[in-house]
């Protein structure tokens, strides 16, 4: 079982790079036959060049970033052991670990919770935050729980964030265990989002029976799973099976699900089975984490124009920042940047005012730059 979890962790790490070694002309059969794919004609040369990055230190693998609503504060995930969650002051550019005190019991809403994880054991992947009023929010975090590659469980952790104090604090509310396959192997979440009705959606990039070779070959390896307060368990949404499901978001009215899967982004009905209503494909990079930025969706990921016919780790070091129209999935490249020895592995972007913050799935820092 430990070997399985180690392989899953490796898959997650490699895939977050953005489909290393996946053929650019990956098979269209990896998506439902009802889908119409529009390959973006957007030109990366129209994007502004990020000439220089500044850095915020003292973080471990800040794979995803969210802003506490109506505040200067940023929460970062730490996708390695002895990390968990971080709190960043966007004004002073200082950071500290964000640790929830020991709770007496989980919330009744999460009655099937596994025990509250120790902060040092949390390896947090994707994040999502939703305001609930009164200066408070709900934070959802994908947790690969365990030290290093010895992942002992897979959960979605839920915290209440209180921004009414000088420095925000969090309270652990409980967690939702990820499902297991028919051989008792946990499915590993990648990204997460929640609905106003309390439903939780997560992507699985690679099911346990799939191999890295399957994913690199462009085969269907992942899906979207939904948990509701009524069902109290994750169930797969039929029709959401793609090659390497990654970032996820909901439409503002909750009627549609947006799923990033390698070079593609699909818009689906929030039903089971789900129906794909639109898909766009990047011609210059891969999608990773996906979040709202005003009335647009925003993503960041590796660029692919130097990859030739196949993608490899070495050709995926540069990055792009791209916005997406949520209605028709029209793509607009905003920024492009080069790999440097100081920063790479860009996995997410968070605009706060005129500052853009970048997360990395393996660097021990996050980056930022000011828009002109």
UniProtKB/TrEMBL annotation:
Pfam families: SGL. It comes from the Bacteria. InterPro entries: 6-blade_b-propeller_TolB-like, Serum_paraoxonase/arylesterase, SGL. The keyword Signal applies. SUPFAM superfamilies: Calcium-dependent phosphotriesterase (SSF63829). The keyword Acetylation does not apply. Keywords: Signal. Residues 182-260 form the SMP-30/Gluconolactonase/LRE-like region domain. Gene3D superfamilies: TolB, C-terminal domain. Residues 1-27 form the signal peptide. This is SMP-30/Gluconolactonase/LRE-like region domain-containing protein. It comes from Moraxella equi. The lineage of its organism: Bacteria, Pseudomonadati, Pseudomonadota, Gammaproteobacteria, Moraxellales.
């Amino acid at each position: 079982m430990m070997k399985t979890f180690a392989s899953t962790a490796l898959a997650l790490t490699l895939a977050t790079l953005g489909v290393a070694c996946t053929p650019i002309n990956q098979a269209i059969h990896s998506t439902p036959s009802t889908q119409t794919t529009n390959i973006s004609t957007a030109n990366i040369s129209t994007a502004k060049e990020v000439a220089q990055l500044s850095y915020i230190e003292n973080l471990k693998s800040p794979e995803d970033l969210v802003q506490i609503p109506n505040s200067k504060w940023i929460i970062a995930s730490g996708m390695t052991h002895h990390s968990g969650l971080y709190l960043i002051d966007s004004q002073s550019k200082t950071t500290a670990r964000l640790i929830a005190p020991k709770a007496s019991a989980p919330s009744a809403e999460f009655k099937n919770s596994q025990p509250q994880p120790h902060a040092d054991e949390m390896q947090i992947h994707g994040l999502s935050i939703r305001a609930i009023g009164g200066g408070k929010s709900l934070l959802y975090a994908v947790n690969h729980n365990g030290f290093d590659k010895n992942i002992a469980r897979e959960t979605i952790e839920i915290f209440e964030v209180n921004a009414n104090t000088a420095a925000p604090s969090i309270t652990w509310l409980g967690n939702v265990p990820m499902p297991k396959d028919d051989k008792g192997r946990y499915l590993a979440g990648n990204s997460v989002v929640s609905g106003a009705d309390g439903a939780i959606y997560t992507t699985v990039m690679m099911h346990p029976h799939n191999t890295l070779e399957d994913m690199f070959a462009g085969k269907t390896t992942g899906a979207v799973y939904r948990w509701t307060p009524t069902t109290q368990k994750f169930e797969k949404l039929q029709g959401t099976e793609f090659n390497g499901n990654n970032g996820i978001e909901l439409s503002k009215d909750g009627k549609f699900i947006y799923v990033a899967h390698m070079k593609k982004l699909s818009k689906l009905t929030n039903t089971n089975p789900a129906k794909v209503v639109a898909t766009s494909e990047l011609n210059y990079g891969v999608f990773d984490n996906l979040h709202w930025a005003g009335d647009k969706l925003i993503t960041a990921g590796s660029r692919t124009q130097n990859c030739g016919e196949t993608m490899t780790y070495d050709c995926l070091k540069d990055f792009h920042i791209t916005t997406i129209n949520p209605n028709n999935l029209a793509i607009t490249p905003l920024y492009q940047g080069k790999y440097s020895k100081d920063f790479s592995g860009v996995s997410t972007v968070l605009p706060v005012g005129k500052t853009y913050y970048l997360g990395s799935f393996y660097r021990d820092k996050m980056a930022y730059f000011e828009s002109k």
